Amino acid sequence: MSGFSQKLDEALGVYRDESEILQHLAEIVSKNILDSHKIGQIRALLFNSGLREFGKVGDQVEFDTTHHEINQGSPLPGDVVVISVPGWEDQGGVLVKAQIKT
Fold first, then answer.
1. Which of 19, 24, 62, 95 is deepest in the core (most CB within 10 A)?
2. What integer pLDDT is reported at residue 17 of this predicted model?
3. Where would I find the H helices in the chain?
4. pLDDT (tens digit, 9 = 90+) per residue, 74-99?
5. Which residues 6+ apart lie within 8 Å of 54 measured at CB?
6. Is the pLDDT of residue 1 over 60?
């Protein structure tokens, strides 16, 4: 095993399974902390792994605690809110909630 492969295995060893890795990558994309080229590569990887981004920045939607995390304000379920950061989901459900504000 090469030095790189061993380091990669050690780094990935902190995750229990592939879904945790994908969830972490989705969180990184949502935080927008990397340059746009790297974000694009990660988005493609997530898409090819079956994840889908939901909600677009600026979309007005009804607040739903299963899909949204409050970033600003104090909405009640059913209140109209604005998406500030899209979320990520797969066939099993929401992996990263969309950030919302009122």
1. 95
2. 74
3. 3-12, 18-31, 36-48
4. 999 999 999 999 999 999 899 999 99
5. 67, 86, 87, 88, 89, 98
6. no
Provide the token pair at 94: 């929401």
d(CA 20, CA 68) in angstroms, rounded, equals: 19
Beta bridge partners of 81: 61
Q: Compute the Cα dihedral for 31, 46, 43, 64 and give only its sign.
A: negative
pTM of the model: 0.77
Long-range pairs for 43-48: beta carbons < 8 A, 24 or more residues apart: 46/22, 46/88
B/e letters for 40-65, b = 16+ CB within 10 Å, e = fewer, are eebbeebeeeebebbbeeeeebebee
> What are 8-42's pLDDT values in tens digits?
666 656 666 777 888 888 988 888 888 899 899 99
